[in-house]
Amino acid sequence: MSDLSPVPASAVVRVDLPQQPYSIAIAAGLLDRLSVQFQDVGLTGKQVLLVSNPVVFKHYGDRAIAALEAANCKVTTAILPAGERYKTLRSVSKLYDVALKARLERSAVFLALGGGVIGDMTGFAAATWLRGVRVVQVPTSLLAMVDAAIGGKTGVNHPRGKNLIGAFHQPSAVAIDPDVLRTLPAREWRAGMAEVIKYGIIWDRELFERLEAAERLDRLRDVDADLLHHILTHSCRAKAEVVAKDEREGGLRAILNYGHTIGHAVESLTGYRSVNHGEAVAIGMVAAGRLAVKLELWNAEDCDRQTRSIEKAGLPTHIPLALDPDEILAALQADKKVKAGKVRFILPQHIGAVTIADSVPRDRLREVILGAMGNG
């Protein structure tokens, strides 16, 4: 197929939190109807700080501003560099500077127009500006649509670890327009597919089987409208259901970190440059799957099914050979999910269900890391 067909239907997924429930709206053309979204959540006529990166803003900035102005909003823009390595307190400080200059009050709304990096930083700035203002997420990457924009996790990276500085701050609304994926770079599409596959493994067997049955997953143009709609709605629903049961990661929500433990170590040790987040998660899922097999929690056949789906999505399955296994083990100890000095792993039991393990033998973990590097 040469072009992406229109999504066959719109959908609304509720995130049923007791204190601040909100909706994830999914519909083609939604970017141009933000005025309706703002009216629905009572944000019409507010000061809005629209945060984006140069590439996304070039494609969609004017349309977003026009839609917000149709809601009688006074729009101020802040453009931050693209890339995980810019997800820092320094970048967030620039948002504070813009907010101060624009005299944004507590009634203001921060709006993230971009991928996961922009969403994380905008959410964190909103959580901390004047002790908290509202935020709306308008994700433009697949990864942000199915994961980063949902659930209220916000934050920035520390030089020694990913997302070590942050806050929980739920959005007032999430608006997903699948049409914007047309301009998404192919590598970023593949990165998002890692999170989609993750949901299939941890929560939604039907989603995984749909992905497994697809001829190709590595290019948007080969994913038909029905499958794209299924990917978006099922992934968002999986995230929403988990978050509604455990908003602040007291227990169940930890399963959303499947593939992220080793993945975050790979990201940080490569300086957030050569391996992007989705690629790191893919590597981490393969490693976690093999670890589960070694610990006799999972069968080798399902582990191979996962690996084949990751490969079909054009994602890497091996840790870069340039990395030192001992440095990876050390980086795991700096992960924010460490509890009582023990690294917490999410390990699959069967497709659609995982378990939380915090007593993984170090020798087994080292074996898996060496194997994932092709050294054993």
From TrEMBL:
<dbReference type="InterPro" id="IPR030963">
    <property type="entry name" value="DHQ_synth_fam"/>
</dbReference>
<dbReference type="GO" id="GO:0005737">
    <property type="term" value="C:cytoplasm"/>
</dbReference>
<keyword id="KW-0862">Zinc</keyword>
<dbReference type="GO" id="GO:0000166">
    <property type="term" value="F:nucleotide binding"/>
</dbReference>
<dbReference type="GO" id="GO:0003856">
    <property type="term" value="F:3-dehydroquinate synthase activity"/>
</dbReference>
<feature type="binding site">
    <location>
        <begin position="140"/>
        <end position="141"/>
    </location>
    <ligand>
        <name>NAD(+)</name>
    </ligand>
</feature>
<feature type="binding site">
    <location>
        <position position="153"/>
    </location>
    <ligand>
        <name>NAD(+)</name>
    </ligand>
</feature>
<dbReference type="Pfam" id="PF01761">
    <property type="entry name" value="DHQ_synthase"/>
</dbReference>
<keyword id="KW-0520">NAD</keyword>
<dbReference type="GO" id="GO:0046872">
    <property type="term" value="F:metal ion binding"/>
</dbReference>
<comment type="similarity">
    <text>Belongs to the sugar phosphate cyclases superfamily. Dehydroquinate synthase family.</text>
</comment>
<feature type="binding site">
    <location>
        <position position="162"/>
    </location>
    <ligand>
        <name>NAD(+)</name>
    </ligand>
</feature>
<feature type="domain" description="3-dehydroquinate synthase C-terminal">
    <location>
        <begin position="192"/>
        <end position="338"/>
    </location>
</feature>
<feature type="binding site">
    <location>
        <position position="260"/>
    </location>
    <ligand>
        <name>Zn(2+)</name>
    </ligand>
</feature>
<keyword id="KW-0057">Aromatic amino acid biosynthesis</keyword>
<dbReference type="GO" id="GO:0009423">
    <property type="term" value="P:chorismate biosynthetic process"/>
</dbReference>
<keyword id="KW-0479">Metal-binding</keyword>
<dbReference type="InterPro" id="IPR030960">
    <property type="entry name" value="DHQS/DOIS_N"/>
</dbReference>
<feature type="domain" description="3-dehydroquinate synthase N-terminal">
    <location>
        <begin position="79"/>
        <end position="190"/>
    </location>
</feature>
<keyword id="KW-0456">Lyase</keyword>
<dbReference type="InterPro" id="IPR056179">
    <property type="entry name" value="DHQS_C"/>
</dbReference>
<dbReference type="GO" id="GO:0009073">
    <property type="term" value="P:aromatic amino acid family biosynthetic process"/>
</dbReference>
<feature type="binding site">
    <location>
        <position position="277"/>
    </location>
    <ligand>
        <name>Zn(2+)</name>
    </ligand>
</feature>
<dbReference type="GO" id="GO:0008652">
    <property type="term" value="P:amino acid biosynthetic process"/>
</dbReference>
<keyword id="KW-0028">Amino-acid biosynthesis</keyword>
<feature type="binding site">
    <location>
        <position position="195"/>
    </location>
    <ligand>
        <name>Zn(2+)</name>
    </ligand>
</feature>
<protein>
    <recommendedName>
        <fullName>3-dehydroquinate synthase</fullName>
        <ecNumber>4.2.3.4</ecNumber>
    </recommendedName>
</protein>
<dbReference type="Pfam" id="PF24621">
    <property type="entry name" value="DHQS_C"/>
</dbReference>
<dbReference type="InterPro" id="IPR050071">
    <property type="entry name" value="Dehydroquinate_synthase"/>
</dbReference>
<comment type="pathway">
    <text>Metabolic intermediate biosynthesis; chorismate biosynthesis; chorismate from D-erythrose 4-phosphate and phosphoenolpyruvate: step 2/7.</text>
</comment>
<feature type="binding site">
    <location>
        <begin position="116"/>
        <end position="120"/>
    </location>
    <ligand>
        <name>NAD(+)</name>
    </ligand>
</feature>
<keyword id="KW-0170">Cobalt</keyword>
<keyword id="KW-0547">Nucleotide-binding</keyword>
<keyword id="KW-0963">Cytoplasm</keyword>
<dbReference type="InterPro" id="IPR016037">
    <property type="entry name" value="DHQ_synth_AroB"/>
</dbReference>
<comment type="function">
    <text>Catalyzes the conversion of 3-deoxy-D-arabino-heptulosonate 7-phosphate (DAHP) to dehydroquinate (DHQ).</text>
</comment>
